[in-house]
Amino acid sequence: MTLYGVGLGPGESDLVTVRGKRVLENADVVYSPGRLSRSVALEHVPEERIGDLEFPMTRDEETLRTAWKAAAAEIAPNAREGDVAFVTLGDPNVYSTFGHLRRTLEAFHPDVDLEIVPGVSAVTAFATALGVEIEAGAGLSLREAADGTAPTGPDRMILFKVTDAPATHEGLLDAGYDVTYGRRLFMEQGETLVTDDPSELADRDYYTLAYAERRDLEVESATAVFTQDGDSAVDPNDDESASDDERE
Ligand SMILES: C[S@@+](CC[C@H](N)C(=O)[O-])C[C@H]1O[C@@H](n2cnc3c(N)ncnc32)[C@H](O)[C@@H]1O
C-alpha cells in the first residue's frame, strides 16, 4: 500500500485540493508534523484517525535524525499494511518537513511506496494575497530571510521565514527593493496581515513572508502599454503564433 505526502495548502481547510481531501478521507492513519497542519487535517479527518508523532524543537542534526528515524519506523509498517498520509502545510516538496521523512524512508524502509499530492504553496498563494502579478516572462526567486538577514540579487524575490522583519527591511531597502509582507495568508489560525510597514510585524511569527521587487524594475508586458483611451491596446488573442496552451 502507500504513504501519501499530502500538501494541505496555506492553512484554510477549503484550500486543500480535491485529491488531497480524497486521500485524507481514505487513509487509515493521517500523521502531521505540527499543530497547524493537524488542525487543518482535522477538518477532513476524525481525530481517532490522526496519528501521533513526536518532533523535538531543535536544530541539532543528530537529534533531528533520531526523531525522523523514529517517525519513519512508526509510519513504515502502517504504510505497508494500508494507506497512510503525512500532511504538511503548502506543498510537500517546497521547503517542507516531508523531505526529511522521504529521505529517511528511502534510507531505512525503501520498500514503502510513496506518492505525493501537491498543495497550494505559499510560493504561489502570496501573489493573490499581496495583490501582486508575476507576469509571463518574469523571473522570481525563492530565498530564506531568517533572523533579520536580507538576501539580494534577483529582480523579484519571495522571502520565507521572515522572523525579524524590521532588520530584513533595512537591508532590502538599502539594496534598492520595495517590499511587501504577508503574515498568516489564507490561514484560519491567527490574524492575516498584509503590510509594507515592518514595524507592524515587530513580533516574531514564523508564518511571515516578504515579496521584494527592485524599485527600478521595468515591466514588459503586451497589455502594460494600455492607455486610458485604449489606443495602444494589444489583444494577446491576436497573436496567431501563440498556441491555445500558451494562452492558459
Ligand atoms: C518551511 S516553509 C514551508 C513552505 C510550505 N511547504 C509551502 O509550500 O508553502 C515555511 C515558511 O513559508 C512561509 N509561509 C508558509 N505558509 C504561509 C502562510 N500561510 N502565510 C505566510 N507565510 C507562509 C513562511 O515564510 C514560513 O516561514
UniProtKB/TrEMBL annotation:
UniProt region (Disordered), positions on chain: 222-248
Molecular function terms from GO: cobalt-factor II C20-methyltransferase activity
Record's compositionally biased regions (Acidic residues): 236-248
Gene Ontology annotations of biological process type: methylation
Entries under PROSITE patterns matching the protein: SUMT_1
Name the record gives this protein: Cobalt-factor II C(20)-methyltransferase
Domain Tetrapyrrole methylase: 2-188
Pfam short name (any one): TP_methylase
Pathway assigned to this chain's UniProt record: Cofactor biosynthesis; adenosylcobalamin biosynthesis
Gene3D superfamilies reported in the protein's UniProt record: Cobalt-precorrin-4 Transmethylase, Domain 1
EC supergroup of this enzyme: transferase
Enzyme Commission number(s) of this protein: 2.1.1.151
Protein family: Belongs to the precorrin methyltransferase family.
Keyword Translocase attached: no
Keywords: Cobalamin biosynthesis, Methyltransferase, Transferase
InterPro entries, A to Z: 4pyrrol_Mease, 4pyrrol_Methylase_sf, 4pyrrole_Mease_sub1, CobI/CbiL, Uropor_MeTrfase_CS
CDD domains membership: Precorrin_2_C20_MT
PANTHER family the UniProt entry points to: COBALT-PRECORRIN-2 C(20)-METHYLTRANSFERASE
